[in-house]
Amino acid sequence: MSKNYKCSNHKVFTIEEEFHLFEQYHASNDETEKDKIRNSIIEHNIKFAIAGALVYVKRWNQVDPNDLKGYAVLGMIEAFDSFDHTRNVKFSSYASWWVKCTINRNVECNESLIRYPSNKHRELYKHFKEFDIEKDD
Length: 137
What we know:
Blueprint: H1 15-27, H2 31-44, H3 46-54, H4 65-82, H5 91-110, H6 118-136
């Protein structure tokens, strides 16, 4: 999943532009046109997804930042599939939750050789974080 994503050439859509694109997407019967619209919306929001991934670089310092970026893009794709454009919400606002959850889920599953439930993973993370704070004092 290590891939360098380029996002400097894309401007951020306004809410009206996004709404228009989603209307075209849902009205279209042509699969290639739907794919073009879907890719366009995701590409124009990749900058946001990468910024969201870079927040986790310090938290998940053992994970390659390019993997975090890849997980963020997967979150954008999941967000697109479940987004309801009629609610007057910007796509990036909706996708932020999906990006965060996808990063956390994939890192928790792939970080360790031993797999355990997410809630236990969070408890261990809190414990080790408190231990590091006590050790620094």
